[in-house]
Amino acid sequence: MDRRFFLKSSGISLASFGLMAAAPDFLHQFANAAALNKGFGRKKVLVTIFQRGAVDGLNMVVPYGDDNYYNLRRTIAIQQPGKTDGAVDLDGYFGLHPALKPLESFWKSKQLAVIHSAGSPDNTRSHFDAQDYMESATPGVKSTRDGWLNRVLQAKTDKEVSPFRAVSMTSSLPRSLYGRAPSVSMTNLSDFAIKAGVYTKAVQGGFEGIWQESAKDSLSETGAETFQAVNFLKEANPAQYKPENGAVYPNTQLGNSLRQIAQLIKAGVGLEVAFAESNNWDTHINEGGARGQMANLLRDFGASIAAFATDLGKRMDDVVLLTMSEFGRTAKENGTRGTDHGHGNAMFVLGNTVKGGKVYGDWKGLKNDQLNEGRDLAVTTDFRDVFAEVAQKQMGAKDLTKLFPNYTAKPADFKGFLS
Q1: CA angle (327, 90, 286) in 5-degree steps
Q2: Are 405 and 138 spatial neighbours (Cβ–Cβ below 8 Å)?
Q3: Each residue of 150-202: pLDDT tens digit?
Q4: Euclidean distance between CA atoms 406 and 254, whole angstroms
Q5: Between 253-267 and 189-197, two packed helices, what is the crossing angle to 10 degrees?
Q6: 198: CB partners within 8 A, 6+ apart
Q7: What is the rounded average pLDDT for all residues in the chain?
């Protein structure tokens, strides 16, 4: 069994530009920290959730104060607050989809903010291209090699870093984390720990011996360091993890991903950036209104995020959670009671340092002459300005020009949703 097979069978992959050649240095640093049992201390953490498929932001954050909303959506509109299955009121004009009721308390405590009419200046309606542009943070440019989250990590100059500083709870590394800064993707922390736990000292010694024999292999020096990392990760004790503060995570892909991210934060393994995703938001047919296809997705989405923030409690002082989707959907419902690929959308930001209880962004409205190409919510906030504010205020990034090639992200353009 070679190293690559071991890592794959353990439910974990180490990556840098999708390759594993960069592993030795950072694993060696990690092993030193683990050996001294000092951990990595208190870290600022950015958690991102990608809603793949283009969520309908107009039904997620409902502009119930705009009469045009109801004219455009005869069968799928969310009713005004106070009516049966009505929206959860936010500010007298906007409301949350009723399935997002679990997030209301965070809005009231000003931990949750919304940025509406956000998105890309590129007009593509291709899921693949739009996701690539958002994750690379270079709209319209396909040649960008690294992702924006990886560039945030590259910009940091910490002397001691962990191989678990960037973790994606996905089967493969997302575009956002491609780059020189090492990243880890894993599908399930519990499975990884159980599989890693069967390797006794004798077996570990055997693996190390095999690895050291392949001198030509680029990973020939990482055997001991890898096992040190495995053992340190096991200290998170996933099988015995119990959420705090009465938090209950949905038993879903997103719920399980956020539960494990919370676990890594508490375990002090040096996590700085985490990535999770939620799929199937491409609601062309029978989208539903307060009930139905999209409502079911939002129910999981809201309950998972609420459980995460509840579980971490005071630890949310150091955590910011940001949601995004490649583009929005058409303002008018289509002939199959769904919505098609659109433009502007809504993003959520959650954390104890968030200036919440407010919908940020320049809302133009839903009249025909206010819509993009007469059909979509206009983009009035470039998503890179949202990313830039989070990168600078939460992650300490100083040179924004390096984070966003060919774009000038200026603090003057920040929305001010973070302290």
Answers
A1: 45
A2: yes
A3: 999 999 877 777 778 999 999 889 999 999 998 888 888 766 544 434 433 43
A4: 33
A5: 60
A6: none
A7: 85
What per-residue string of b and e applies to 379-390 under the rule 16 or more CB within 10 Å gives b?
bebbbbbbbbbb
pTM to 2 decimal places: 0.88
Q: Which sequence spans correspond to the domains of the chain?
A: 39-106+125-152+271-413
Distance CA 154, CA 149 (A): 9
Tell the residue number behind the tokens 């990690």, with chain if given: 30
CA distances from 50 to 65, 139, 324, 333 (A): 28, 16, 5, 23
Look-up of token digits 């433009």 = 343
CA distances from 301 to 51, 156, 176, 253, 295 (A): 9, 31, 20, 10, 10
Quote the CA–CA distance of 120 and 265 in Å, as a whole number: 31
The per-residue pLDDT for 186 is 86
- Which residues lie closer than 8 Å to 228 by C-beta, 6 or more apart? 27, 30, 31, 34, 35
Listed as ranges, residues in the chain with pLDDT below 70 are 1-40, 190-239
Q: How far is CA 235 from CA 53, 74, 218, 232, 269, in A?
A: 36, 53, 28, 5, 9
**pLDDT single digits (tens) 250-263:** 999 999 999 999 99
Q: Which residue has the tokens 């676990």?
A: 263
Q: How far apart are CA 305 and CA 192, in angstroms?
A: 24
* CB atoms closer than 10 angstroms to residue 145: 10
